[in-house]
Amino acid sequence: MMREPLMMSAIKSRRRCFRRKKGKLVNANEQYKDTVFAAYFGADAARCCEIYNALCNAHATPDAIKINTLDKNFFAKLRNDVSFLVGSELRVLIEHQSTLNENMPLRFLRYIVEQYELLIERKKLYQERLIKLPRPKFFVFYNGKKDCPDKEVLRLSEAFGDNDKAVDLELTVTLLNINDGHNEKLLRRCRGLSEYARFVSAARRERATGKPLAEALSAAIDWCVGNDVLRDFLREHRTEVIGMLTAEFNLDEAREVWQEEAREEGERRGELRGEQRVRQMVFGFRRAGVSDEVISQASGLPLSEIRNFSVDFQR
Hints:
single chain, about 50% helix, 11 helices, two-stranded antiparallel sheet
């Protein structure tokens, strides 16, 4: 009996860890609902201000920043990573992604609609005077494993199908790659974002050594603290960060497993469909009185396989 390939064995082993149970991850640590990115940036005006100044080449001060990140509660139905007002004129929404998602414009549309609904009293919608709204800007910071350019613009209109026709609704999202070697000018202008990117890189590097996840994340934190990367944040929130990042890594690895399973299932179904087509072809020739030898020559299939199909045909 041939040994199972190492990669296939590893995938099956991971499947046992990441099967869904009633729509949820078996291994996901449900205590940690935030991501490290949202926890680090989402509630700190100074860090949000630094990101805004780096993105928009501005010179705002932290006292101009008002954080209004959506968090599921009695009033908000949705949850996003980071959003804040700059003065009263600009509303910035930021999402962090470890996978490329072409539906981000649609997600941001839902976020901004909900934020405007929270901002405006419903009865004011019927007043004659124009309601002034803070101008929105949408960004995605990407640091996944797939190749991605430094910058990409995602458009809601791409979801409408026929791109040659004008549309009456548009929303654009700027996707920025913050992996090593990408958008270095931006990362130099924003120390917090640069250190976050280095932290994720360190976590992946330690994970790639084959260490157990908790040990790898702990080693990554030790390295970051020793090299002044998110040092104070990691010292203060070490346990929470390990919990959040464990959930993130589990989700990413589970997603890879599901994709692999879907690919294999597609191949399996394709093989079945292919076999069914061959079987139908053989049966058709047999009904026409064509011999197995001629079918074999015409199809290129081994005579033994043709005869197996023929046995099924005679049953």
